[in-house]
Write a structure and sequence with these properties.
The protein is α/β, with parallel strands linked by helices. The chain is built from 9 helices and 8 strands. It has one domain (about 1-205): TIM Barrel. The two termini are about 15 Å apart.
């Protein structure tokens, strides 16, 4: 939190302007409880099933965020478990979330995931498609887009990611979106300097974790 505060200050903002999301994938319940007791204000999970098991044990001491890829067949559970879904990466998924939210009589908060570099290994909208996607999603009564999320290409130095973070911030500003989910353990301070309102930090809080296959949105 001290590192977040210093980065926020460098960016002309306050600690309260940035939500530190502790990415708890593969982390056992007792260590998650310790993190919450130490001041973590939100938890991030990559997989719906793992989150379902943890919520059953831990309850909802803080909001839960879905930061990993969401499959359409997991939408019903995801809407029940998570306070915010970061990874709406295609219109088909947005429509599926809207249908399920309508059935539940609620409005769901989401972020649109942007594939800044057009990497084949990652999901997300092309930057040029964000405007059209926002127009389409605006017609869905049970979905509310709060901002954008991105996982930039891997870089050797945190500073090398600055341009990608700046691009996402500019995209959000052009479309009047407030929330920016960007930055992980290796580069969250640069992301905050460039306007991140949410950072997804796992390793820097919980330490290294065993390798596990599958997509993810925070480390």
């Amino acid at each position: 939190m001290e590192r977040v505060a210093r980065a926020a200050e460098r960016g002309g903002r306050r600690l309260e302007d940035v939500l530190l999301i502790a990415v708890s994938k593969t982390v056992e319940a007792d260590r998650i409880r310790q993190a919450v007791a130490a001041g973590v204000r939100a938890l991030g999970e990559n997989r719906v099933q793992e989150a379902k098991e943890k919520v059953a044990v831990l309850g909802r001491p803080v909001p839960w965020h879905l930061i990993g890829t969401l499959q359409t067949n997991k939408v019903k559970d995801a809407l029940t478990l998570f306070d915010l879904i970061h990874s709406i990466d295609r219109l088909e998924l947005a429509r599926a979330c809207d249908r399920r939210a309508r059935e539940g009589g609620r409005v769901v908060d989401v972020l649109l995931e942007v594939n800044l570099a057009g990497e084949a290994s990652k999901g997300g909208l092309a930057p040029g498609d964000v405007g059209g996607a926002l127009e389409t999603v605006a017609k869905l009564d049970h979905l509310r887009v709060k901002g954008l999320m991105a996982i930039p290409p891997a870089v050797e130095r945190a500073e090398d990611a600055r341009g990608w973070f700046r691009e996402l911030r500019g995209l959000a500003e052009r479309h009047g979106l407030k929330e920016l989910s960007m930055g992980m353990s290796a580069d969250f301070e640069v992301a905050i300097e460039e306007g991140a309102t949410m950072v997804r930090v796992g390793t820097a809080i919980f330490g290294a974790r065993p390798a596990r296959p599958g997509p993810g949105g925070g480390a």
